[in-house]
Amino acid sequence: AFYTKVDQETCISCGACGEIAPDIFAYDEEGISFSLLDRNEGAVEVPEDLADNLEDACEECPTDSIMLAEQPFAKHAKKGQ
Ligand code: SF4
C-alpha cells in the first residue's frame, strides 16, 4: 500500500503531476499541487490502479515534492487511526 502527499513548500507549480496522475493530483488557487485523495493529508491509501501513475508523477516531479510512504502520513492523523 502507498500513501502520498505533496510537499507544498517545495512544489513549483510546474503542472507535471496533475497531467500524469489527474486522479491523484490537482492544484489550489495558487497552482500548488495537492493530493485529491484526502486534501493532501496522506492518510488515504492510493488505489492500486493508480500506483503506476503515482510512480511516474513522482519521477517527473522536478523538485521531488511528491512524498511517498508505505504508512499513512501522521501529521494530521486523527486519533484512533
Ligand atoms: Fe509541484 Fe512536483 Fe507537481 Fe510540479 S510535479 S506541480 S513541482 S508537485
UniProtKB/TrEMBL annotation:
Its cofactor is [4Fe-4S] cluster. Residues 2-30 form the 4Fe-4S ferredoxin-type domain. Keywords: 4Fe-4S, Electron transport, Iron, Iron-sulfur, Metal-binding, Transport. The keyword 4Fe-4S applies. Ferredoxins are iron-sulfur proteins that transfer electrons in a wide variety of metabolic reactions. This is Ferredoxin. It comes from Halobacillus shinanisalinarum.
